[in-house]
Amino acid sequence: MIFSHLYFLRQYDISDVTADEEEVKRFLPELNQPSARRRRDLVRRTRNDLARWETEKLHIAVTGNSGVGKSSFINAIRGLHPGDAGWAPVDVVEGTMRPTQYNHPVFPNILLWDLPGVGTKNFRRETFMAQVEFERYDFYIIICAGRFTENDIWLAETIHQKGKTFFFYTHEGSARNR
Ligand SMILES: Nc1nc2c(ncn2[C@@H]2O[C@H](COP(=O)(O)OP(=O)(O)OP(=O)(O)O)[C@@H](O)[C@H]2O)c(=O)[nH]1
Ligand SMILES: [Mg+2]
């Protein structure tokens, strides 16, 4: 819906917006309708939609195999080092044992969730999605260390089947992952 309003905002000299063509087509009848009251209502709804990013929370799940650097990734994004307040514990053995929420340092509405590693004895694939409360997250970042594994494929397929989005982040991996 937000995109349908972006074309309209161009009329109000807000130029750094883009609009999906189909959305614009759906939007045009509203734009052309003659009632001043309804046009004002349209402007109000448009402004509300555009302001949503300032108030709505975005839940991002950081997932992947155990030990691939999920907690380290979150610490890096947050610019934290070992011992800093709020540092996500990093370990060489299964470290993160429950989904843990961290705030983005600049955008407080962005919440990064550090998930336990998938496919371990404590977090088997069969129960993983229920254990981490799959529905909570808006999208997923799957961390891969060096190699692409069956668990990564399983995560991607499962997230896709459930109608959500994922991104892969890969890094060189540690010696013990090779
Ligand atoms: N070489 C290398 N090692 C890393 C990297 N990121 C993390 N590590 C190391 O990998 C180990 C595991 O890191 P964590 O961040 O705890 O990994 P995790 O995915 O959160 O692990 P679990 O919570 O147990 O699933 C630690 O010894 C880290 O120092 C990286 O980018 N490169
Ligand atoms: Mg961890």
TrEMBL record:
Pfam families: IIGP. InterPro entries: G_IRG_dom, Immunity-related_GTPase-like, IRG, P-loop_NTPase. Keywords: GTP-binding, Hydrolase, Nucleotide-binding. The keyword Cell cycle does not apply. GO terms for molecular function: GTP binding; GTPase activity. Residues 56-178 form the IRG-type G domain. Gene3D superfamilies: P-loop containing nucleotide triphosphate hydrolases. GO terms for cellular component: membrane. Belongs to the TRAFAC class dynamin-like GTPase superfamily. IRG family. This is IRG-type G domain-containing protein.
